[in-house]
Amino acid sequence: MSVNIILLGPPGAGKGTQAARLVESRGMVQLSTGDMLREAQASGTEIGKIVADVMAKGQLVTDEIVIGLIREKLAQGGSGFIFDGFPRTLAQADALGELLEEMGETLDAAIELQVNDEVLVDRIVGRAEEARAAGKPVRADDNAESLKTRLMAYYKQTSPLIGYYHAKGLLKGVDGLADIDDVAASIAAILD
Ligand code: AMP
Predict the structure, then answer these.
(1) Is 85 in the pocket of ligand 1 (CB under 6 A)?
(2) Angle, CA of 72, 16 and 14, to the nearest 5°
(3) Separation of 89 CA from ligand 1 center, angstroms?
(4) Is any ligand 1 atom within 6 A of the Cβ of residue 141?
């Protein structure tokens, strides 16, 4: 049975970047609810329409919607999952535990990418500028106003998960301010 992990951390902490590395290096399966929701919007599904405004503002979409998306993915089976941007609330964390249990899978670690707020603003603004320079679409929520809301949502709704996974003995902290390669090496050390 392969390892299943959660990447925890505020927007801009590097969850997506590190998840992509793990997909590349270990063939793990990245499950990003943010990507799923953006895909739903791009393809104009009912869910996509419902969540567009909430996402642009930087608020969390309902537990019911994101748990439904994850349930659908997990129903396809498999293991070696990286949960990226999910769970973001205690209700989602409980639901994930139940879904994995039903599959006979376990959660092996919740890896917290530790950063500070100043660097997040720079990274998010930088990400928007890079996208613009490359002629790629800029995320509707990569702006100062949404970022404020996203950070608040992280502290109020998601950061309690740090205590939750600590209590379960699954929390591992990684310095998210280090170079991308060093962060990847720290994560590899946890997984090996
Ligand atoms: P992300 O790409 O992870 O930064 O997510 C972008 C946006 O999608 C968030 O600001 C939320 O509006 C929404 N979202 C993604 N994942 C979740 C989740 N697990 N729970 C609630 N909302 C989410």
Answers:
(1) yes
(2) 145
(3) 11
(4) yes
